[in-house]
Amino acid sequence: MNWTTIEKLREKAGQMPPGFLDEVMAEATVDGERVLLSQAAYQKIKAKYLPPPLQGAGDLVAKFAKPIARAIDRVAKTDLQNCNKCKQRQAKLNTALPFTRNKEPNHDGKASP
Predict the structure, then answer these.
(1) Directed axis angle between helix 84-96 and helix 57-76, to 10°?
(2) Residues 44 and 96 in one domain
(3) 28: domain range?
């Protein structure tokens, strides 16, 4: 069970997309000043409103390049933000430079720290 205060929840809702606070309150139980949310409801709302964590360098590049592509699309009437080649390069860069460490054995047979 996850919990927070109503005050902190309202602060967070100010940074989230519309509907976030309503959905949390519909799923939550309010106990005085505390808002209680089941783990399943928390995961569902988290998946809907929070972006997934960056998997690698490709996601980081895309995070900065997509707003630029959207601006170019608006001005030049193009569709760069949905470019399949860009998505392929993003996936390749994520594979080449992931943000998670592999627990594969190194040359001496021990797992990497």
Answers:
(1) 160
(2) no
(3) 2-49
